[in-house]
Structure formats: C-alpha cells, structure tokens
RNA sequence: GGGAGUUUAGCUCAGCUGGUUCAGAGCAUCUGCCUUACAAGCAGAGGGUCACUGGUUCGAACCCAGUAACUCCCACCA
C-alpha cells in the first residue's frame, strides 16, 4: 500500500472529530477524579470565527486535552453570548431590509423575530470551533439568554437591589445615538480626532454696541461643539481673571437664537485655555452638568435620542448633530458671530459596538455600586489567589479596581433580560420577579396604592447590560444560582483556567471575580491566561472592516487544523500581541508533513527477527533525550509558556527524532531492521504522538491508529500523557559531542566541496578512546566514513577540527591540501585564543575578582584558561606538522 | 494629563537569582544537494555596540538614574 507523500488533513479531521463525538470523549460528569475545568469566553451568538478566536480557543483546547490525557476529568464548557447591542443592531438592520421598522413592532414581535434569527444563524461560530478541533463538552452548551440563565440574572438583580447596591438615578451617561441606548464607560473607546475649535462671539447685554473698544462689546468663546450653543445655560469665567472682572453679574446673548444667559464665575475654568471663557451646557457635557448643579442652572436638552436636534434648539430642528454643526458654522459666519476657526485635536468617545460618536446625555438609568464588590476582587488578584498571566496585568488591574466607577447596567434595548422593576403611573416602583410580587411589595409599603390596580403596573422597558449576564457565566453554566448546591457546581467550581483577551479584563474578568466572590465565596478561576491581540504584519488589529484578516476556515482548509493551531501557537507568547503572518501557519503545515513522513519511514521498514539487536546506543540516547525534553516541556506548561512548550516539542520531533535518531537507526536501502530497534522506535513514535496530541489532535489520532491495532475506544485523545522517566546525562553529553564531530565533518565536506557520497576517514585522539569507542559506528554512518582510528598524532596529509578541547583529524591522502590556507586558518584560531586567554588572565590576576567572586565562578575561569592553553598547544603542534 | 509596558539577528521572540546552557531559538537569507520518508525536504554557513548616556559592581543584556522611540490602559479641560 502506498501512502501519499504529503499529509492531507481534510478527511482525517472530519473522520476523527466525528469519532470523538460518537465516543463521547468530550463529555464530562462529576466523578472521583480531579476536575479540570475551563469555561469558554462565550463568543457573540451572531459572530463568526476570527483570528482572535482561533488563538484563544487553540490555547484552551491544548490545555484541556493535556489535562484530559493526564488523567483529570476535563470539562470545557462552551456557549454563546446574546450580545445585546450587537445582536439587536443586526436584527434591526435585517428588519429594515425587509421594510420593517423596529418602532412599528411590539416588544414581543421584535423578540420573536430576534429569536428566529438567532435560531437560524446563531451558533455558527460553535460549528466553526469544531473544525479547529475544540474538544468542548457540547452537551453543556449554554446561551446567556436561555431561560434558566436569564432567571439567574434577574435573581441577582433583585438580590443586589435588596442589598442596596443597585440604584436608580439621573446621571450623565454615554449615549449611543446609533444604538439608541446608554452604554457603560468601558464600552466607550476614546480616539483622538482632528476637529475644529470655533471661536464664537457672544454679545454682552448692556454693552455699548457702538463702543470703539471691541473687546467690551462681546465675549469670545472657544468650543468644539457649536451646535450646542442653543443649549447654553451660562457663560463661565474664572473669577480671578482680570480680563473679565468687569463682566460679573452681566448677561450675554447666545448668537442666532438671541437668548440671554448669565455670566458666572468659577475657578474650574482655566484662564489660559482658549479664551478663558467657557460656555456652560449642562445637558450635553458632564463638567457643565456638574457646574450647572453648583450654580443652579437650567438643563436644556436640545438633542433627540437619535442625535438629531429637537424643538428646544429653536433652529435646525430635525437635523443631525454633525450636519447641524456645519450649518451653524456657516450661520455664525453670516451673522458675523464667528471670530475664527482653528484646527484642534481632541479626544472623542466612540461606541465600541456601533462606532457612533458618544453623546453625553442625562437620563434615568440603573446603576450598580462597585466599591463594595471591587475590594475583595482586588484582593484575589493582589494576593495571587487568582493569577494573571503574564502578571504585568496586575498593575493595570489594580489601578482600575482602585478607581472603579459605578456601573451603568441598564440598556435601552429589547434583546436582553428585562429589568425586573415595576412602575405605577405615579412613578413609584418595586423591584421583583413578577407583577404579583411587585404589587405585593407596593401594597405593603407606605405608598398609597389604593387608587391603582395591579394592572396599572408597567415593567421597566430596559434590559440589563450584556456583561450583567456574562459576569455570572462561570456559575450559571453549572446552574449555581437556581440550584446552589448541585453536584456540578460543587464539583467544577471554581474552574481552573480562563483564557481571554486583556481587552475585557475589566468588562468581564474583574466582574466575574466579583460575582464569584459574592455568590460562591470563591473566585471563579485560579489562572487567567491573557492572550494578545492578533494583528497583521504591519501591526494593525485584524478586523473585518480593514479586510486584513484571513478567513480562519479557509486557512484550515488550506493548511489543516493542526497546521493552523501550530501556527497560532508559534507566534504567540502570553500577553504579547500576535503579529500574524501566513508563514507561521505554513510552518505548522510543514510540521504536520514532517510527522507524516516520519511515520511513512517507520511504516516502510521490514523487520527481521533473526537480526541481533542493534542501535542500542541510539535508542538509549533518544530515550534520555525524550525524557529530558519532556521535563522541560512540562516545566514550560506549568508556567503557561505554551508557545515555548510547542517549540520544544517541535525541535524534539524534527531535530532529535527525525534528523538524528531516525538517521542513526535507518537501515540501508531495502534492508530489514532488527526487531529491537523497530519496536523501540514504534514506542518512541507513540510517545511523540501523545506528546503532540494537545497541539495537533488530528494527525496524532490518525497516526496513532496506523501504528498499531487499537481496540474500540482506545484513542490518542484519551491515552495517558507520557511521564518523564530515566535520563542518562552521560549518554546525552557524550552523544552531543559525537554529533558535534559529525557536524564538523559535514562542515568540512561543505567547505572543501567533498561530495557526501565520498567516504572519508577519521582520527580520534587516543585519550578519548573510552568515550568514543562505542560511537565509532554511529559516527561512521552519519558522517559517511570508511574508517575510524584512534591515534596520537596528526597524520601527515590531513585536515583538523576541534570539538571542545580535542583535535580530530581527517586524513586526506588523495586530496590536494591547500597548506597555506590551512596554516592561515590555524593561525587565525590561535590568535583568537590568545586574545581570549589574555582576557581570562586579566580577570584571574585581578585580586578583587579572586577575593569577591564565588569559588565556582573562579573555577570556571581557571578551566577556561586551561582549556584555551591546551587548545593553543594542540594548534601549534598542528602548525609544526604543516 | 496620570499610569504601565516594550526596545536583544532581516522578522517574531526566549534569555529565570548579575558570572559557561551568555549572547540564544524559530522563521527568513546564503552555499551545496532531487542522498529511496519528506524540495512542505537534507547538510552546512553567515547574521547582534543587547535603543542611547551615565552610574553601582571584581564583573551588567540583566540592578539604578536619565534620554529617546513605540505600545497599551486610565482621565471631564471647553
């Protein structure tokens, strides 16, 4: 049977994924084993897989598969997030295409459309994860808006309200005019924008308009938002500002609408910024709002929820705020109220979900007090009970937790958990799960409800922030709210590792810790592995809009899931951004191919049972090598240096197993191999497959079944992860030196342009006879030698090379030896060594060094000196011979 | 404006407690090879003033101070 020269992943991947599912290998139930649990950061239900997911989920799958093989009860809980703003926006857009406006629908109708849509397109991303090989327990798939999880959200809301941590209040919120909802501070992305600073003249009431001194006639105010002048409530100057002292108590007139406003003083105003005059617009700026409260100014809100101007603006009613800004500029110009326009850079907030410019807006919202919850959540991380990997994020975390703001949790949307607050027409309200309970609460309260009936109650039309459901995720996926003592939650909680992006450290990670502490008394996980952001070669974040992101599924088709996984791991150390390049994935594919071909070689051998066992040295060496590397790999895993662990495995397989071990034992063309070597090699390969399985699940499973007859259910995915065994350090050291000798000989071949086919001879210094006698065969084979001798002197016609402090010779009787070149090479070497020796001598002659340095260090220096001297001596002898 | 981080080979990054695993790895590059597992390969080789300037030390990529560039987070200067 001939096997393809290249590995073709496609059928292999589908076949094994289906088989794993069929055998139920991913599913987990509580038992006596130690649990190892990961909850997936739930992707948006409407999302499609992007490179960030690939990285994130590859890491999770590596961790979970390794834990499974190490005998733990591995449970990876998948699911999706309802992502209220993003999903609602998509549904609204879809309805719009059908000619349906959200405003024309009832809440129920809209939600029914939304659920239909979710049923149809939701969860595509989970199907995509399967292509990557994700070994989630799909029976446990959850959705943040399914009934039971929603009930948990409502329960928590009511509980926190009872505790007095949830409150309702008028606040300046970040209003997203595109999403038509308030969003939290964390969802606002600030960007520096090139804008214009408009210098607008406000006439002063009572000033002599004929006055020759223009400056007394009007004030000039610098603003980036001229469209809000109609909402001005005052003009504010610094009371210490000499320029404006005379204006105290006077009034100014808003241009265009000619409304009078007072001129007030407050030292909030910086004198040297702009003109030193500030227009106070309480409805549209947070500072102005606070200034307005202090000076009891009216709030004039001139904007509709969608960002257009309303009738209070008096002019430009119905125009969008940005259109209005332009028009006002022109209008001010025409009415001679504009002094000048300057270019200006300012920080503007954008909605994370819709990218609309945020409008500060006063509105009634629900808030969650954060101070009480933040304190313990900070402790978990600072004490190391929850470890952030890498720990540089500790600082950022601390800073945020110490300056945390109350969390605006209400959203003016329909897609989400509706806030369990019930209002009477007079504005009194109760927080309760049902209308009946709310009615009971209100009846029992001191409020007078006699004039109302239960039917007069209206539920708050807002929903809670999506994060208000996802912060419960590690508990709610195990039904820990509805049934706090159930078997699952007690077994799986707290989970082990969380793998997520640093971007949502506060949105999500910090809040999960808060919820975990509040409702389980324990943080929800022990380690948080923070991946970087996947960027393109130029360092730009990969995004759909830039079109710089490859489609992960295309990559999987082209390079195989294993190749893509390896590629992602190769370019990603924890917490560092990933500069993605297809070259990494290619490297991953090539690695798959390498493993495939190692198998082809093993598979091609015929075993001769009558042959005595050979290659014992090679076998012993690789055994030790494997164990030594396995130890290192495990150490790296323990430190979550997964990329490093991957690279070590890569080198072990490619360099040590393929390039070295297999070449050592490979029989000649069409010759059989002895049973000992063959069986050992199969055992090694088997271990290698297991070692690689967490990184490359598909190819390893495939080959695992090809290398031996396997019983039903006997699969690599559930095989026991190799354990480090005996390491013979001497074998490792001696072999390393022998390999060095081989490499030197090959190098000389290259330099002297001697064909690898031409056999050479080698003279090994006789003092090394003990060390090298068992290596003669191996060296001869790998360096293609005809004869190896032990000797004291340099053969007359020969080339020499050094390994360590020993000089080896390759006799070259038939070859032309360029004596001059050889001399020159040796001289150069001697010169270098002498320089080196000098620097060592300086050190050793330095009394301070000898008296201060550790004895080991001094010993090392002495050895360096001795080695260098011995090398020089040998080289000088060689010179004489020439 | 405040804070954190980064800067080591052409690229991506290791380098742990200051000293032989100290200047490393992978990729890329160059040279020679279609050698009966693999050209998605094999065998070799060449790449670095460890951002810069000082300091501490017998000894600094590593510790300290300053400078520069970049990145991220936080923040209400119109």
- What characterizes the major β-sheet? 7 strands, mixed
* Spans where pLDDT lies below 50 across 5 or more residues: 209-214
Number of strands: 31
What is the beta-strand fraction?
Answer: 15-25%
Radius of gyration: 37 Å
Number of helices: 28
- The residue-averaged pLDDT reads 89
End-to-end Cα distance: 57 Å
* Backbone structural class: alpha/beta
C-alpha geometry:
elongated
Helicity level, as a percent range? 40-55%
Quaternary organisation: single chain
Describe what you observe in this structure:
The protein is α/β, with parallel strands linked by helices. The protein contains 28 helices and 31 strands. The strands form 11 sheets. Strands 7, 8, 9, 10, 11, 12 and 13 form a 7-stranded mixed beta sheet that branches. α19 runs antiparallel to α20 (642-665) and α20 (642-665) packs antiparallel against α21. The two termini are 57 Å apart. The model is unreliable at 209-214 (pLDDT under 50). The structure holds one RNA strand of 78 nucleotides.
Defining traits:
4-stranded antiparallel β-sheet; 7-stranded mixed β-sheet; 882 residues; elongated; 31 strands; alpha/beta; RNA-binding; single chain
Q: How is the secondary structure organized here?
A:
Blueprint lengths: L8 H14 L12 E5 L11 H19 L3 E5 L1 E2 L3 H14 L9 H15 L2 H9 L9 E2 L3 H16 L3 E11 L4 E3 L4 E17 L13 E6 L10 E4 L13 E3 L6 E6 L11 E4 L5 H9 L26 H14 L3 E14 L7 E10 L2 H12 L4 E3 L3 H10 L4 E2 L1 E2 L9 E3 L5 E3 L3 H10 L13 E2 L3 E2 L2 H4 L2 H4 L10 H6 L4 E4 L4 H16 L6 E4 L3 E2 L16 H8 L1 H10 L7 E2 L2 H23 L2 E2 L7 H23 L3 H24 L7 E2 H18 L4 H10 L22 H24 L7 E6 L3 H4 L3 H8 L1 E7 L6 E6 L2 E6 L7 H27 L1 H6 L2 H27 L1
Parallel strand pairs: 1-2, 3-4, 9-11, 15-23, 22-23, 24-25, 26-27, 28-29
Antiparallel strand pairs: 5-6, 5-14, 7-8, 7-10, 7-13, 9-12, 10-11, 14-16, 17-21, 18-19, 18-20, 30-31
The protein binds one RNA strand of 78 nucleotides through β8, β12, α7, α10 and β25.
């Amino acid at each position: 049977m001939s096997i393809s020269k290249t590995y073709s992943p496609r059928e292999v991947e589908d076949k094994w994924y289906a088989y794993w599912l069929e055998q139920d290998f991913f599913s987990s139930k509580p038992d006596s084993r130690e649990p190892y649990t990961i909850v997936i950061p739930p992707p948006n239900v409407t999302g499609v897989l992007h490179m960030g997911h690939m990285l994130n989920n590859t890491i999770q799958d590596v961790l979970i598969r390794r834990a499974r093989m190490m005998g733990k009860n591995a449970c990876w809980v998948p699911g999706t997030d309802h992502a209220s703003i993003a999903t609602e926006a998509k549904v609204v857009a879809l309805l719009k295409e059908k000619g349906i406006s959200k405003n024309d629908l009832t809440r129920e109708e809209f939600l029914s459309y939304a659920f239909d849509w979710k049923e149809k397109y939701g969860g595509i991303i989970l199907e995509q994860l399967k292509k990557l090989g994700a070994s989630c327990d799909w029976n446990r798939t959850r959705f943040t808006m399914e009934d039971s999880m929603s009930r948990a959200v409502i329960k928590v809301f009511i509980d926190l309200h009872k505790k007095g941590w949830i409150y309702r209040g008028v606040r300046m919120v970040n209003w997203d005019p595109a999403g038509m909802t308030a969003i939290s501070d964390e969802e606002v992305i600030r960007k520096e924008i090139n804008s214009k600073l408009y210098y607008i003249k406000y006439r002063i009431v009572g000033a002599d308009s004929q006055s020759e001194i223009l400056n007394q006639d009007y004030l000039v105010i610098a603003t980036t938002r001229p469209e809000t002048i109609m909402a001005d409530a005052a003009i504010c100057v610094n009371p210490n500002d000499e320029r404006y002292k005379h204006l105290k108590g006077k009034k100014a007139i808003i241009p265009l609408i000619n409304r009078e406003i007072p001129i007030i003083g407050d030292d909030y105003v910086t004198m040297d910024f702009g003109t030193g005059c500030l227009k106070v617009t309480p409805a549209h700026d947070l500072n102005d709002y606070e200034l307005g409260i202090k000076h009891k100014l009216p709030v004039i809100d001139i904007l509709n929820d969608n960002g257009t101007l309303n009738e209070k603006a008096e002019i430009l009613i119905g125009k969008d705020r940005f259109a209005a800004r332009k028009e006002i500029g022109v209008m001010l110009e025409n009415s001679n109220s504009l002094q000048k326009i300057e270019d200006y850079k300012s920080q503007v907030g954008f909605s994370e979900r819709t990218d609309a410019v945020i409008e500060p807006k006063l509105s009634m919202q629900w808030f969650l007090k954060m101070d009480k919850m933040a304190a313990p959540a900070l402790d978990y991380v600072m004490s190391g009970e929850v470890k952030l990997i890498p720990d540089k994020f500790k600082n950022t975390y601390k800073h945020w937790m110490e300056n945390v703001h109350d969390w605006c949790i209400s959203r003016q949307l329909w897609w989400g958990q509706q806030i369990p607050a019930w209002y009477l027409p007079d504005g009194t309200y109760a927080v309760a799960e049902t209308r009946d309970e709310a009615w009971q609460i209100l009846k029992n309260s001191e409020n007078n409800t006699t004039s109302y009936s239960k039917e007069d109650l209206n539920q708050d039309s807002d929903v809670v922030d999506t994060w208000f459901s996802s912060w419960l995720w590690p508990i709610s996926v195990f039904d820990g709210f509805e049934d706090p003592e159930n078997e699952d939650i007690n077994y799986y909680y707290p989970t082990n590792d969380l793998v997520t992006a640093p971007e949502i450290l506060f949105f999500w990670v910090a809040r999960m810790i808060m919820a975990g502490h509040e409702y389980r008394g324990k943080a929800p996980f022990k380690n948080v592995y923070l991946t970087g952001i996947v960027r393109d070669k130029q360092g730009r974040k990969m995004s759909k809009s830039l079109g710089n992101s490859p489609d992960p599924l295309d990559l999987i088709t082209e390079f195989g899931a294993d190749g893509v996984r390896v590629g992602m791991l190769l370019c990603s150390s924890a917490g560092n951004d990933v500069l993605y390049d297809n070259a990494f994935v290619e490297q991953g594919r090539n690695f798959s191919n390498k493993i495939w071909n190692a198998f082809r070689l093993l598979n091609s051998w015929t075993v001769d049972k009558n042959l005595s066992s050979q290659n014992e040295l090679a076998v012993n060496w690789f055994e030790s090598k494997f164990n030594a590397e396995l130890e290192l790999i495990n150490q790296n895993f323990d430190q979550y240096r997964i990329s490093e662990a991957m690279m070590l495995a890569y080198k072990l397989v490619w360099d040590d197993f393929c390039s070295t071990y297999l070449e050592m034992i490979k029989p000649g063309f069409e010759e059989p191999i002895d049973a000992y070597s063959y069986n050992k090699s199969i055992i090694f390969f088997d271990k290698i497959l297991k070692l690689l399985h967490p990184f490359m699940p598909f190819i390893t499973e495939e080959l695992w079944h090809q290398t031996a007859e396997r019983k039903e259910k006997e699969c690599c995915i559930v095989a026991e992860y190799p354990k480090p065994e005996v390491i013979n350090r001497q074998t490792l050291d001696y072999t390393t030196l022998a390999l060095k000798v081989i490499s030197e000989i090959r190098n000389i071949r290259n330099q002297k342009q001697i064909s690898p086919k031409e056999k050479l001879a080698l003279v090994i210094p006789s003092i090394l006879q003990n060390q090298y006698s068992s290596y003669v065969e191996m060296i001869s084979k790998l360096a293609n030698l005809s004869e190896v001798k032990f000797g004291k002197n340099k053969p007359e016609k020969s080339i020499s090379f050094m390994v360590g402090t020993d000089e080896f010779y390759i006799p070259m009787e038939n070859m032309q030896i360029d004596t001059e070149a050889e001399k020159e090479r040796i001289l150069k070497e001697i010169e270098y060594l002498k320089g080196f020796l000098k620097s060592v001598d300086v050190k050793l002659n330095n009394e301070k060094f000898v008296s201060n340095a550790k004895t080991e260090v001094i010993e090392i220096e002495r050895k360096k000196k001795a080695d260098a001297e011995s090398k020089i001596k040998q080289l000088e002898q060689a010179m004489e011979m020439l």
